[in-house]
Each structure stands twice: as structure tokens, then as C-alpha cells.
Amino acid sequence: MSLCRLHNERLQDALKKRDLWRLVKPERAKELAKRWLSGDMRNEGDFDPYVVCWLEIHAHAVELLRDFGPKSRACALCEVERQTRPGIASQWVDRFADLVWALAVKMGLAKPPRSGRSFISEAHLH
Ligand SMILES: [Zn+2]
Description:
Blueprint: H1 5-17, H2 29-38, H3 49-64, H4 76-83, H5 88-106
The structure holds zinc ion.
């Protein structure tokens, strides 16, 4: 599983825009990915918004795309665009960045949205 450089940058930008980049812990990425997948987060310190976005984007790609599995090497977001339509990748980036933002707010790690901007409802995420 991987993201190409362009889409990786887009995801980073989306997290920076939401002031979540400060929560990213590259040196613990593997451990935190395992914890997220196994539901074994001990506290908010085990939450890494980049890792969660990355895992969830791939999980959705595997679910939705043809010929795309956990072992696929293509960029999940390029593949989404190729199989659906241009512009979808940036919608996915925003959607998953909003998801981790909502989680971060719930955990007290980020500020709630200013009035006028609402979170996408969790129902949209399944
Ligand atoms: Zn890509």
C-alpha cells in the first residue's frame, strides 16, 4: 500500500490546514497503525491522524475498487480517480481529514469547528 508523492502532499496539507500535523508521530507509525487496526489505543497519545487517514483511505479503496487489494502497490487515490472520475481523490482527502479532525476534537486534541462549519456526520463515513 502506498500513496504517490502528490497525494501524500495533499493529505499532509489537509492535516496541516486543520492543525493536526502536530499530532503526527512518524517514529511510531507502525506501532500506532497496529493499535488503530486492533482497537488497542491506550489513550489519546496513541492517536496519529496521518496514520488513521492513510489506513482508512486504503481500507475504503480495497472495498470499492476493482483489482485493488491490501497488497496493491498503486497509489490508492490515483486508482480511485482512474476508476471513478477526476476530483474524487481530493474529496476523499478532505473527507478523511475531516473524520480524523472530528476524532481529535472528541479526544480533546483539537479545537471544535467555528460556527457555520459542521462536521460531516459519522453516518457518511460508512
Ligand atoms: Zn496518487
